[in-house]
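Narrative of accomplishments. A recurring question from our advisory board has been how the design workflow behaves on a single, concrete structure rather than in aggregate. To address it, we present the structure tokens for one chain from the evaluation set, followed by the sequence designed for it. No filtering or post-editing was applied between the two.
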């Protein structure tokens, strides 16, 4: 297993107090189970990215150290067809690509091979403590999540740049055992900002739980409900009326649509969206959110 990073140490380096509190039952709830009473599910955004470099194995471990079951990540495809876990469609913000490959601007993920990306430092930008962290492949990320007995909200990032990426993601998930009945029922949700991509996943694997990232007009929600189980909007403009409108509809698997909102990083915001009735909260600081709404 990948060596665990101490979140308490990581938080101290960032000047933040990390609290490991009771509440595992809340963190391990199923965001695909339909609207419910009680605390929303807490989902670690790009791992516990408030305490470790986003989308790295260290961020997975940070979430695990906090007792958070659900982690979110972003998946893209390299020049040679490998799947890697990174948010931006270029490598500049979160790696040292400009130093290693100075003549390769604009440093798009799709223009680099997996071996080239594996050379990059994906941790130093966040702090010296994480120097040498790498951009993980999807396989490496899945292994870390599985080793920690965690669950995964997987985002297909910029699918318009990677035709056919949905089928490739499903292939890797199958090879790694993530399309078993237990995983499909309890441990995996696939989401995207692209309705076409979410629809494609639903068509290829109708048993999978899917989510659409965004806030479609209320009049358009029935069309989305035909191929998705979740509507996952940004929190800033979210209203209780909108959450209720989503909950009134049944999704692709015959259960009421659920709402997981992003990215809520403070206690006040977490309480506000909890009181709006959301089912999940996606956050960089999962301990802060859990403490506020648990």
């Amino acid at each position: 297993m990948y060596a665990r990073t101490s979140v308490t140490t990581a938080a101290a380096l960032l000047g933040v107090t990390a609290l490991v509190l009771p509440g595992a039952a809340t963190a391990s709830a199923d965001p695909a189970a339909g609207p419910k009473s009680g605390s929303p599910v807490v989902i670690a955004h790009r791992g516990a990215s408030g305490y470790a470099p986003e989308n790295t194995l260290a961020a997975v471990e940070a979430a695990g150290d906090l007792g958070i079951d659900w982690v979110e990540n972003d998946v893209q495809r390299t020049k040679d067809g490998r799947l890697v876990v990174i948010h931006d469609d270029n490598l500049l913000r979160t790696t040292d690509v400009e130093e290693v490959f100075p003549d390769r601007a604009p440093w798009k993920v799709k223009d680099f091979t997996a071996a080239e990306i594996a050379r990059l430092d994906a941790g130093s930008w966040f702090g010296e403590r994480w120097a040498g962290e790498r951009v993980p492949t999807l396989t490496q990320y899945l292994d870390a999540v599985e080793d920690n007995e965690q669950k995964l909200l997987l985002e297909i990032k910029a699918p318009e740049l990677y035709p056919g990426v949905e089928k490739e993601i499903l292939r890797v998930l199958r090879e790694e055992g993530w399309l078993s009945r237990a995983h499909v029922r309890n441990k995996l949700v696939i989401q995207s900002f692209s309705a076409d991509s979410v629809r494609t996943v639903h068509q290829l694997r109708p048993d999978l739980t899917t989510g659409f990232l965004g806030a479609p007009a209320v009049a358009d929600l029935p069309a989305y409900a035909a191929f998705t189980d979740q509507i996952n909007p940004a929190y800033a403009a979210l209203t209780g009326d909108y959450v209720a409108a989503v909950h009134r509809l049944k999704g692709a698997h015959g259960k009421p649509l659920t709402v997981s909102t992003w990215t809520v990083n403070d206690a006040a915001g977490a309480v506000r969206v909890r009181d709006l009735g959301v089912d999940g909260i996606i956050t960089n600081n999962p301990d802060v959110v859990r403490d506020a709404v648990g």
